[in-house]
Amino acid sequence: MADIAFLLLIFFLVATTMDVDTGLTRLLPPIPEDEQKEEVKVNKRNVLVVLINRNDQLMVGGQFGTRVDELKDIVMEFFTNPTNDKTLPEKVTKEIQFPPGSSPLLPPNGLWVGSVSKGVISLQNDRSTTYKKYLKVQNELVAAVNQLRQDFCQLYFGKDFDDLNMNNPTEKEIAEAIRDRYKMNISEAEPKNIGGLN
Amino acid sequence: MSKFRRKKGKGAQKINTSSLPDIIFMLLFFFMVSTTMRETEVQVQIKIPEVSEVKKLEQKSLVSYIYIGRPNRGLQGMYGTEPLIQLNDKLINDEGIPTETVQDFVLFEREALPEVDKNKMVMSLRIDEDIPMGKVDDVKQALRRAKALIINYSARKDYAEQGR
What ipTM was assigned to the predicted interfaces of this complex? Predict the structure, then answer.
């Protein structure tokens, strides 16, 4: 009996894997329906261009030589624009529905009214940029938005954004509303060659 | 002769093994439940990058994998050392941009999903960290054409960066 069990055990040890797949989940932009590229008019102050050249160097908002670890703060400032700087993105007033009575900082009907940034980040890379650097930069952009959501969630609900239980309808609604409050506005440009000869 | 002779066993006492199958079966069931079947053999060298903001992929049945890396040592004689794309068990050896092949792969994988989940398909990109982005951009463009828009850049949790 033990022999058979051993045999099966060894088989399963060899034939299976245990690794959990983790990673950064992102959405690709759909290909425009009509081949005609539509020119979307975006105000210059609303776009933060993040370039990575073929030597893995960064240029953020026209400034060359930004380090990756500075990126998170730059992006957070870009999305919040705390001083209403004229060079940082505009804001629009928006109403977002939270579950009624979910937070003492919200009115009883749960309607949040505030200004939401119109900022968009445009991430561009060269064909010779290494994947590692690209992912590090993606990570910092995602980290910045996550941090903003986290701060908002902590302030209004006294909870970590990551700890919201998606199986609980109220908390799921909260999570979706917060996602709406801070959108992950990261656009990945059509690939092109930038930054020197190839 | 003596009535009170000590009962001495000859040699070492045997261990009672009647519970051994139970223990092994327990281990077996543990492994059967906690692991998943290895579906493909990865034929390219991949060192997954490490970043801080990783999330777990929840529904494994919705995930299809695309591997990009340099071929394994043993296969370099046949495929060279340039980065290649692996879809399921096949290394794609096409010259230039393998758009068509990737699109076919997406269609094939989507066919395998139940009707309700067809637009929830996740493409997990397992890419070596030293691969130039050109190859990745080609694959991303192909995925956009094939309308497989949810992608996951496979990465490991970087614990060193957390305290920052």
Answer: 0.77
